[in-house]
């Protein structure tokens, strides 16, 4: 009687061990690739569950196929015939970012037409304010480490964009 229980327990533990060994595998019944004018996609048939978790700076997707995108930014289009000095420093920064506007923007500052936007890598506007002095400080203490874009707009259409790295 004791030997039967022992054999049953050993067989049960062996079966559980085999199930956990297969838990990191996926057996798909099919799959393929699709191409169209809007892009390409790949798919698999037979995956039992799929879930995506998102947080402030990214996302985590479970599954057999992990999506990724490769893109290249070749440059930003700056307005023509704009000769205005704007500097931002330090870059990379860890706490504060300073903006220095040239004397050419004095009239725009008085008119209240100079503003900036701090935009994160996902395109969300983090900070948006109007500038009224030539030297300003932006606190980046609350911003997580990453890449940001500082877009300074002056006049009706003119703008300059800076890539900012937060450590």
Describe what is shown at a glance.
By secondary structure, the chain is α+β, with helices and mostly antiparallel strands. It contains two helices and eleven strands, in the order αββββββαβββββ.
Describe the structure.
By secondary structure, the chain is α+β, with helices and mostly antiparallel strands. The protein has a domain at 87-166: Immunoglobulin-like, CATH 2.60.40. Helix content is 16%, strand content 40%. It contains two helices and eleven strands; from the N terminus they run H-E-E-E-E-E-E-H-E-E-E-E-E. The protein has a four-stranded antiparallel β-sheet with strand order 8-7-10-11. It has a three-stranded antiparallel β-sheet with strand order 5-6-9, with no helix packed on it. Strands 1-2 form a two-stranded antiparallel ribbon. A hairpin with a 4-residue loop joins strand 7 (114-120) and strand 8 (125-131). The model is unreliable at 66-72 and 79-83 (pLDDT under 50).
What layout of secondary structure does this protein have?
Layout: H1 2-21, E1 30-36, E2 39-45, E3 52-55, E4 58-61, E5 86-89, E6 96-101, H2 106-111, E7 114-120, E8 125-131, E9 135-139, E10 146-153, E11 159-166
Antiparallel strand pairs: 1-2, 3-4, 5-6, 6-9, 7-8, 7-10, 10-11
CA-based shape: elongated
Tally of helical segments: 2
Largest sheet: 4 strands, antiparallel
CATH architecture of the domain at 87-166: Sandwich
| Topology-level CATH name of the domain at 87-166 | Immunoglobulin-like
Q: Which band does the percent of strand residues land in? A: 35-45%
Q: Which structural class do you get from the secondary structure elements? A: alpha+beta
Mean pLDDT: 73
Cα-based radius of gyration, to the nearest Å: 28 Å
Provide the low-confidence segments as ranges: 66-72, 79-83
CATH H-level homologous superfamily name of the domain at 87-166: Macroglobulin (MG2) domain
Total E-strand runs: 11
**Overall CATH class of the domain at 87-166:** Mainly Beta
What kind of assembly state do the chains in view correspond to? single chain
Portion in helices: 10-25%
Sketch the topology as an H/E string, one letter per element.
HEEEEEEHEEEEE
Termini separation (Å)? 67 Å
Please give the order of strands in the largest beta sheet: 8-7-10-11
């Amino acid at each position: 009687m004791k030997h039967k229980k022992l054999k049953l327990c050993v067989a049960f533990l062996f079966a559980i061990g085999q199930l956990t060994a297969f838990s990191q595998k996926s057996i798909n019944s099919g799959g393929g690739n699709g191409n169209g004018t809007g892009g390409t996609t790949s798919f698999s048939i037979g995956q039992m569950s799929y879930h995506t978790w998102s947080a402030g700076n990214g996302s985590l997707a479970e599954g057999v196929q992990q999506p990724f995108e490769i893109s290249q930014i070749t440059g930003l289009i700056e307005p023509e015939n704009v000769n205005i000095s704007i500097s931002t420093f330090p870059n990379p920064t860890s706490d504060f970012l300073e903006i220095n506007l040239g004397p050419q923007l004095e009239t725009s500052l008085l008119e209240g037409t100079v503003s900036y936007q701090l935009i994160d890598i996902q395109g969300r506007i983090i900070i948006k304010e109007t500038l009224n002095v030539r030297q300003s400080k932006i606190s980046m203490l609350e911003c997580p480490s990453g890449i940001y874009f500082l877009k300074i707009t002056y006049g009706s259409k003119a703008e300059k964009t800076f890539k900012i790295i937060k450590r």
